[in-house]
Specification:
Order of helices and strands: EHEHEHEHEHHHEHEEHEEHEE
Number of domains: 3
Radius of gyration: 28 Å
Distance between the termini: 48 Å
CATH architecture of the largest domain: 2-Layer Sandwich
Number of helices: 10
CATH superfamily of the largest domain: Histidine kinase-like ATPase, C-terminal domain
Strand content: 15-25%
Oligomer: single chain
Shape: elongated
Number of strands: 12
Strand order of the largest sheet: 2-1-3-4-5
CATH class of the largest domain: Alpha Beta
Largest sheet: 5 strands, parallel
Length: 373
């Protein structure tokens, strides 16, 4: 990984620059060039597009390190780490305005150099991921304006749900930018982890919204295949057991012969994963979740039972609407899209889904799917 990271050194003291280059190569980085002026730094950055620039603040010529760094960041979006032995307050303020990815005070140790570079590269990658996700959101909004009215509604609701992860990203990046040089490595990593978690949350919401959009546009294909339902459910439950962060008991019980089942395995996976994951999420620690598979004539009956918080009776009719969440979920995270995806997957099978629930006791979701499609 390190060998592919290219670094440009901008340092007017040749001995210092050569020593720094040797250290970087020993650490596994590639030194694309060594230059001694701001003008040359901008030229080489444009031609060779390094992954990172180590920039001395005090440089000879018309363009100092601060101005060169600002130009490189603005034009090429390349992260810059400043090298300096001293700087007056005015220079420090100018440097801060260029949004540097770190500072190294000369002389510095190899470990400090390595850590600063890795943090800068990681932060830049996180920022790139954030930009990519935001571009996807913007593109999705523009496309939705050309779709039917309900698609526009989905996007507006999704934008509302994006606020929490975006706020997390904004706060963490601001803290890292303003106080990064004062934070311990542990605290820096904690902020980076928060940013990555928020990005994952946004990515999952995007996937869910796109799935709903494809379903409502008739773009999800129904591809039934012969399926060993007992084996399929056993494997799915085992996977959820291993992935569960809490200590829930997940039971699977099958009664009947399902050797003639023909279903869409991808849609069935959507149905059961969402229902069982919800049962786990809304159940207390140590609660029991059960998947019961039975047969009634030419239908397979899937029942997912939990001992969770339950759903208010007055809200059960709205459960499968896009972005709807029960009023008693509190701070339990969720998008309000999972059950809407379940409903559309059930509909594509020509099946039906119902729910029985009591607040404080638990819920049972029953899915009936034709065995022969």
């Amino acid at each position: 990984m390190k060998a592919s990271k290219k670094i440009l050194i901008v340092e007017d003291e040749l001995i210092v620059a050569e020593d720094l280059a040797d250290t970087l190569r020993n650490l596994g980085y590639s030194v694309v060039d060594i230059v001694a002026s701001g003008e040359k730094a901008i030229e080489i950055a444009s031609k060779k597009r390094p992954d990172l620039v180590l920039m001395d603040i005090m440089l000879p010529g018309k363009i100092d390190g601060v101005e060169a760094a600002g130009e490189i960041r603005r034009k090429f979006d390349i992260p810059v780490v400043y090298l300096t032995a001293y700087a007056d307050q005015k220079t420090v303020e100018r440097a801060t305005a260029t949004e540097p990815f770190g500072y190294l005070i000369k002389p510095f140790e190899e470990k400090e150099l390595h850590t600063t570079i890795e943090i800068a590269l990681r932060r830049h990658q996180v920022e790139q991921n954030i930009k990519l996700r935001l571009e996807i959101v913007e593109k999705m909004k523009k496309q939705a304006e050309e779709e039917r009215d309900r698609h526009s509604h989905y996007v507006c609701m999704a934008s509302h749900e994006f606020r929490h992860p975006l706020t997390t990203i904004f706060i963490s990046t601001e803290i890292l930018k303003q106080y990064g040089d004062q934070l311990t490595e542990e605290k820096k990593i904690k902020h980076f982890d928060s940013i990555q978690s928020a990005v994952r949350s946004m990515n999952q919401m995007l996937e869910d919204v796109l799935t709903i959009g494809r379903a409502d546009s008739g773009k999800i294909e129904f591809n039934p295949i012969p399926l060993d339902l007992v084996y399929f459910c056993s494997e799915l439950v085992e996977s959820l057991r291993q992935g569960a962060e809490s200590h829930h008991t997940i039971e699977f019980i099958a009664e009947g012969d399902f050797s003639d089942a023909v279903m869409d395995n991808h849609l069935l996976h959507h149905i059961l994963t969402n229902l069982i994951s919800n049962a786990i999420k809304y159940s207390p620690e140590g609660g029991k979740v059960r998947l019961l598979l039975t047969r009634e004539g030419e239908q397979a009956i899937f029942r997912v039972q939990d001992q969770g918080i339950g759903i208010p009776e007055t809200e059960q009719a709205q459960l499968f609407q896009v972005f709807h969440r029960a009023t008693n979920v509190g701070n339990i995270p969720g998008t309000g899209l999972g059950l809407a995806i379940v409903k559309r997957s059930v509909d594509l099978h020509g099946g039906e889904i119902t729910v029985e629930s009591k607040v404080g006791i638990g819920s049972t979701f029953t899915v009936k799917l034709p065995l022969h499609n």
